[in-house]
Amino acid sequence: MWSRPEYYDREKLYEKVWADTVSKVAERYGVSNVAIAKACRKMLIPVPGRGYWNKVNSGQKLTKTPLPKVDSYPRVRRLYNNSEVIEVKIIERLVPEAFVLEEQLLQKESLPEMKIKYNPAISITNRYVKNTGKKLKESSKKISKTYGYGRCSSDNDEAFEVNIGPDHIQRTLVILQTLCNALEKRGYSIGIKPKKINKDPIYHPAYVRKETAPIHIFMLDTCIFIRITETSNKREIDKKDRKDSYDTYEYIPSGKLCFEILNYSYENYARNKWQDKKILRIEDQLNDIIINMIKVITIGKENAAQTKIRHEHWKIEEAKRQEREKLARLDSMRNQNLVKEVERLIKFNQMKDYIEVIIAEGKNRLGKDYPDSDFSKWVEWAELFLEKNSPETWELPKFELTDYHNCYMEKLI
Length: 413
Description:
single chain, alpha+beta, 5-stranded mixed beta sheet, 3-stranded antiparallel beta sheet, 9 helices, 42% helix, 12% strand, flat
């Protein structure tokens, strides 16, 4: 019968090690002296020093070391038969209510009346188990020993996912029916997962791809998916029995079933696979399967909460990163604008110097003919150009650049 491990109580253990010798305390707990010493050391419990009990037995009155107050300490699990002490760290859970509910459900599972009894003669009444059997029998008519590993499949369409040899169809159906009865007795439902609309652009709109409708177990607001498979043994075919050159090997089902919970767990909190052994078979482990379904759901909710927190943290960090990139981009744009403005000023001063020099040279060459010359008209235009394009007419640089595409400076003339 399943039960939770027991842990040492820190205050009780402290009182006991100061009330009697470690050997007697260890005897009462059913563990070794070393186990008690390790437990006290890990839980920060002071113990009497060497010679303490001799002094007490001689009549001396000694004061015991007070138990230090600590904010947190590791829990230590009790093991028997002189086994080592295991340290169990207290974990802060994000969904503690899920673990409380799990504890309650697992305690209920440990009751004798919850024991699942396997009956090979059970009637197959569940519609999805019936459909699974129908599909397996249809598939068994097309079995190839060289292809498909010699197994038949339920194709996971409005049926449980099963891939086994034909000799174990009835046994598998009885396992599924027994499990369904036990789950329904506990108030859990079994049904088809809602279909999603296929929007895959690879397929032509006129072609409707068939989507399977897998069966799930609905427990505690969670869909649990299961699978039963059977391994196959590979065997070389005698050359005289080969139908063609490709038929080198054939596959023979091993007779060993494997039951899997397909919901993925990020940590080894729950078991998700059971296989036939020499003594213990799948049908003997159905209680353990339901227990671990509950555990898978609990840790799944915890993982979902952790994923949500990680996503929120990622969004915050991503917003900070984008802000840093934006500031760096704006700073780069300011640098570019500054360089362009400097180049613009240099070009303007070069044009101004050129115009002043060429005006002086033109007046020197033309002399009295300068006022009526074509050159005087060019000078008039050049001076007007400098006036229109002098720095006095330029816009002042802007620190705030809001539009990336409209913040570039005007082209140099």
